[in-house]
Recover the amino acids of this structure.
């Protein structure tokens, strides 16, 4: 562990493992918990080349940010594949702070000095690792404004959108809020078809999760092969989830026990986060997603959640259903000037818009 300081008044200490850091303040999202960081520091989870954890202390206030060196993030590769890029944006490794798989990034509540130190230390780490860039992923609008004001990035790329809606009284209230009658009828039709097909919801938590996650992983692999797309979640990622407080799986099961789809997520405070969605296509795919979403809303209401965060993906469907899109932007800080990379990031941002982001 080394002690460093680039910003006056801020002390920063590098740690190689999350276990050596002091206890955190209450986390804003499950993706800001120390358990999430611990689950993601295994090399098997995302094929990361190395991990570092930075403890940032501003007087009595402390924050933590995890950095990983990677040249093979499945999520980044999938984005490039979706936009049919012929050459990768980056020709070598980059540092993510934290992983792209953390749906929400940043350091909520941190001071300007802490944010500046996080960028400066991360950029220095990237240079030491011969990485092309430091990436601060998935910054929601308020977070993005703070980071860019304090340390303007070399480029920005809006890789994803999150989707949020109040749970209210449950499914009937949600359905009534769907903006158009056509979308409302589509949603109700999908739910009815799932009911007619005999789908049932099984919510799984705690010690019951590991065997379920094996089945979800098998379904995900089958669907990735069928669609000719990269698999986004490896087995190490999924089996690490039970270590994170509030982890759960919502399963859509047929009458014979066949898995038709699943939401993997977390209950954190008053919000139910549906982080990953895996749905079987073909004869079930035309209704499984809508049915799962409807039953997820019912589950959220029954368990006292006030907000449903339906995660990333299926942008147009979720927009039609009345979810509020939350733009998630990645700030890119290059280690050396590279106009080609900046141009490629702009192209990626434009191409992602063209394939159906809201």
């Amino acid at each position: 562990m080394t002690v460093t300081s680039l910003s006056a008044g801020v002390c920063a200490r590098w740690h190689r493992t999350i276990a050596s850091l002091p206890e955190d303040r209450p986390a804003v999202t499950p993706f800001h918990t120390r358990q999430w960081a611990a689950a993601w520091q295994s090399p098997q989870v995302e094929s990361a080349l190395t991990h570092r954890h930075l403890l940032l202390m501003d007087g009595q206030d402390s924050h933590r940010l995890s950095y990983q060196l990677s040249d093979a993030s499945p999520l980044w590769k999938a984005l490039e594949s979706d936009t049919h890029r012929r050459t990768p944006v980056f020709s070598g490794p980059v540092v993510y702070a934290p992983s792209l798989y953390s749906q929400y990034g940043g350091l909520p509540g941190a001071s300007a000095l802490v944010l500046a130190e996080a960028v400066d230390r991360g950029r220095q780490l990237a240079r030491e690792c011969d990485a092309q860039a430091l990436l601060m992923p998935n910054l929601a609008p308020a977070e993005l404004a703070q980071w860019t004001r304090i340390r303007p990035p070399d480029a920005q790329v809006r890789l994803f959108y999150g989707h949020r809606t109040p749970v209210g009284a449950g499914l009937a209230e949600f359905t009534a809020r769907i903006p158009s009658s056509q979308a409302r009828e589509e949603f109700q039709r999908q739910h009815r078809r799932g009911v007619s097909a005999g789908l049932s919801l099984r919510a799984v938590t705690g010690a019951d999760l590991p065997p379920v996650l094996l089945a979800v992983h098998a379904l995900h692999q089958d669907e990735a092969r069928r669609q000719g797309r990269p698999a986004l979640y490896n087995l190490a990622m999924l089996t690490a989830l039970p270590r994170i407080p509030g982890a759960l799986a919502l399963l859509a099961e047929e009458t014979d026990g066949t898995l038709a789809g699943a939401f993997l997520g977390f209950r954190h405070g008053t919000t139910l986060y549906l982080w990953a969605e895996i749905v079987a296509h073909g004869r079930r795919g035309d209704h499984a997603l809508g049915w799962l979403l409807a039953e997820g809303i019912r589950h959220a209401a029954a368990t006292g959640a006030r907000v449903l965060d339906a995660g990333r993906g299926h942008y147009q469907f979720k927009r039609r259903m009345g979810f509020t899109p939350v733009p998630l932007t990645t700030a890119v800080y290059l280690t050396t000037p590279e106009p080609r990379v900046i141009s490629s990031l702009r192209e990626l941002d434009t191409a992602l818009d063209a394939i159906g982001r809201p």
